[in-house]
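Fill in residues.
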């Protein structure tokens, strides 16, 4: 029998978390992962094209401004990437630096934006980020530079993997708003940090 302590588990966590050794992916594994991301993202784009087009039209009809919102985040190996989202706020209130947390019934959010954010449909354009290679299908949440500056040393391990369109943290019951409020978002890093096993090494 092998004890959790011998595996380097954090027995104080609920549930206990096991620290995995991070090893670089082989070139073959990295290529396979990249091809899988391309196939899945291209397939998703084709299937969701009518929905994406409908959302774009609704955004333009609901408020003036661009359909897409662009924001700088940190990706694999601390590289600055530009992620895409459907714009969910009025153009004059868009906050690319996320200086003010979006609250429930926030007046900056448009009518269409409320629905998009509630269903996380505003993040669908990140399929294009996956196709470009800046993100993967599954991985840690792409973090703001200001957030990374506050990371404890252990949490920096999450930058050893490409950020994902489907977040590891979403596998736990954690609200979207909570990941941006106070220090609560640091708690959301735990499952993401412990999920990093290898380095993509595709770019």
């Amino acid at each position: 029998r092998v004890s959790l302590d011998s595996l380097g588990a954090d027995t104080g966590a609920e549930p206990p978390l096991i620290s995995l050794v991070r090893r670089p992916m082989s070139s073959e594994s990295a290529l396979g992962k990249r091809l899988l991301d391309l196939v899945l993202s291209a397939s998703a784009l084709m299937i969701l094209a009518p929905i994406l087009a409908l959302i774009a039209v609704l955004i333009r009809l609901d408020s003036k401004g661009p359909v897409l919102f662009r924001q700088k985040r940190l990706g694999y190996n601390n590289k600055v990437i530009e992620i895409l989202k459907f714009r969910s706020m009025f153009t004059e209130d868009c906050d690319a630096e996320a200086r003010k947390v979006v609250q429930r019934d926030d007046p900056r959010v448009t009518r269409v934006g409320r629905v998009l954010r509630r269903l996380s449909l505003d993040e669908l354009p990140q399929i294009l980020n996956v196709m470009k290679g800046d993100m993967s299908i599954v991985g840690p949440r792409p973090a703001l530079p200001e957030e990374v500056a506050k990371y404890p040393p252990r949490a920096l391990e999450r930058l050893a993997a490409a950020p994902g369109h489907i977040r590891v943290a979403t596998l736990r019951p954690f609200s979207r708003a909570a990941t941006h409020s106070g220090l609560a978002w640091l708690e959301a890093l735990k499952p993401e940090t412990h999920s990093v096993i290898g380095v993509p090494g595709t770019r």
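Residues 6-11, 17-21, 177-185, 197-203 have pLDDT under 50 and may be disordered.
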